[in-house]
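Sequence in, structure out.
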Amino acid sequence: MTITIRVEGAQPEEIVRGLLAAQEVFDKAGVTPDQAATARFVVEGWDIRGFAGKVPEEELAICTVWDEADQAAVQACCAGWPTHKVPRSAELELVREPQRFSFTSEEERSEWLFQTAYSGILEELCEEGYFDDGRPEDEVAFLLDDWDFEHLTDEQRRLYDERIYPLMRIWFFERERFEEEYNRLRNERSHELPDNRQLNLFAA
């Protein structure tokens, strides 16, 4: 398992900064996120039971690491923000998709940063108004607000792979080319949209 954070209003690069700060806490403590979360859960359960039974000594030794990582994520993600906008928690969570935190090249590191941040990238693109023309892929983009692929049909997944994902990569890796590529790709597909005369044929 690896980790994710949710900070309202944070940009993808800020989310990545928070994730790396949280992972650094785990690395310095010599525990995995899964171990830290489990330890926290065990100690909380022991507390709820009134500290009855065997003392979970191993878990007690690392039970604070999870909260320390959460706070490190908040501070790194929200660096430079007005104090009143900084949340109390980064809502640190475990996720099941494995991610690597050691890299053999800068290319690997960049790819991991993209894979970690891409749900935020799509949200940012939608907020900027890039998927508001009523095209089939636009509907898919907004369906993914909660980043839940399980509810997409096969056709919607195809639209994501062919028409959304490439633009997300350009936005992240080659931002200076984005407007040009966005306009080019959208114009190429403009013939797929019915014009008003065609729509009127079917109007009641």
